[in-house]
Specification:
Length: about 140
């Protein structure tokens, strides 16, 4: 079953529709790669997908293990490299302040997040650094 349909709009902009929900996202090439940088770039989507997948997996893990999970804020820094041009690194920060987990629970949550489906799908050549904040 198809998941996404994409249409080129011109000027390096693409409109993508999530077929099940009808949700639409537009992407644009970044300024440093001939675009206008007015939307997420495809590599921004990869970086955001990685971050959001980690947060989603934390939520699933907590639901399945009876842990309270009410708040998480995250950021991701995408580092591009050349030859060939690609994502070379991601610096991810997950702020889980207010989560009253003990050290064992924190380790399990971190392990679940680091093993999310996107993490298992991207090239191992991408250097990923993750910082978990609890206070």
């Amino acid at each position: 079953m198809k998941t996404i349909s994409s249409t080129y709009l011109g000027d390096l902009r693409i409109s993508s529709t999530h077929l099940k929900s009808g949700s639409i996202i537009e992407t644009d090439a970044p300024v440093d790669n001939n675009g206008k940088g007015t939307r997420f770039s495809p590599t921004d989507m990869l970086a955001g997908g990685y971050l959001n997948c980690m947060i989603t997996i934390i939520g699933i893990y907590c639901d399945q293990n009876g842990l309270t999970f009410e708040k998480c804020e995250g950021t991701v820094e995408k580092i591009m490299i050349d030859n060939p041009r690609r994502v070379g690194g991601l610096n991810i920060v997950l702020d889980l302040s207010g989560s009253n987990w003990d050290d064992k629970e924190k380790r399990r949550v971190q392990n679940a997040a680091k093993n999310c489906p996107v993490a298992k799908s991207v090239s191992p050549e991408i250097e990923v650094n993750v910082e978990f904040i609890y206070s």
